Amino acid sequence: MTHENSSPVLIVGSMAFDDLELPSGNSKDVVGGSATYASIAASLFGPVRAVAVVGDDFPDAVLNDLTGRGVDVSGIERAAGKTFRWAGRYSENLASRVTLDTQLNVFADFSPKLPARFKDSPFVLLGNIHPALQLDVLSQIQNPRFVAADTMNVWISGERKVLGDVLRRIDTLVINDEELRELAEIHNIKRAAAAVRALGPKRLVVKRGEYGSMLFDEHGVFFVPAFPLEDEVDPTGAGDSFAGGLLGCLASTGSLDGQALRRALMMASAVASFCVEGVGTRRLADITRDQVTTRLESLRSLVHLEVG
Ligand code: AMP
């Protein structure tokens, strides 16, 4: 795989041990976190710079694996203490989940320090972590070309003010439909999207799980289906893989026009679909760029119609 023309993508987020209760069975200590999924996904397209914190219990082998994928892990701090932990239980149809436990551990005192060579990163993904940490990272970057952020219900309900500061400073918000409704306090997706865009982000990407995703920008609305899978195993990290794939694809072409965004959205949908096919990062970590391209073509054919 050659990445010579691709700009690096800086990704900040969580690195975690997840305990997952899935219809197919329970899995403990699964390596996850928003930065992990997003970095693996973005690395399919080009170089990645990761910023996160892990504890002294986190395996070197995982960091070495990321390095082997072209992820610069020098922004991943190893702190004394335990790695962040999250536990979740999925419904029988995988359509919903509840958080059973969140242990911040080393995240509680995390103060990201970007290595000097990360500061010129043109593409930035502020993965789902506390919005104050997202702002902290942003303040250390000089003149990024494109900044996208993800967030979640915990920050929407508990950290609305600082999340508002993030929204004013980013180009694109990537968010799921329920979170969008909560943030806008409007049920209708189109009106909620307009309300959130009025808070700052020029574009909004709405993830709707198995119902696909939507882009709202100055050109209007664009829809991409989710790839219909026969075997859905674990949706954990699908949203982060989507965001990582989106940024990776944009950075690999360097274009930010409406068409480039639409193509990247489709690519992100293809990447995210692989994530769901295995527990944790197992399947995502196994795929090649060619497999993503093949799935992109399948997605394209899903919505292609010869009008006679
Ligand atoms: P997703 O399924 O895309 O929403 O991402 C799931 C990942 O997010 C899991 O691997 C968790 O470790 C991570 N996660 C869950 N809650 C939080 C949180 N409060 N802050 C940061 N990361 C989290």
Average predicted local confidence, pLDDT? 96
Biggest beta-sheet profile: 9 strands, mixed
Number of helices: 10
Percentage of residues in helical conformation: 25-40%
What's this, in brief?
The protein contains 10 helices and 13 strands. By secondary structure, the protein is of the alpha/beta class.
Walk me through what this model shows.
The chain has helices spanning 34-42, 60-68, 131-139, 153-158, 160-169, 177-184, 189-197, 238-253, 258-276, 289-302, and strands spanning 9-12, 16-22, 25-32, 48-54, 71-78, 84-90, 97-103, 123-126, 146-150, 172-176, 203-207, 213-217, 220-224. The chain is of the alpha/beta class and 308 residues long. The strands form 2 sheets. The protein has a 9-stranded mixed sheet with strand order 5-4-1-8-9-10-11-12-13, with helices on both faces. α1 packs parallel to α8 (238-253), α3 runs parallel beside α5 and α8 packs antiparallel against α9. Bound molecules: adenosine monophosphate (AMP). Adenosine monophosphate binds next to β2 and α8.
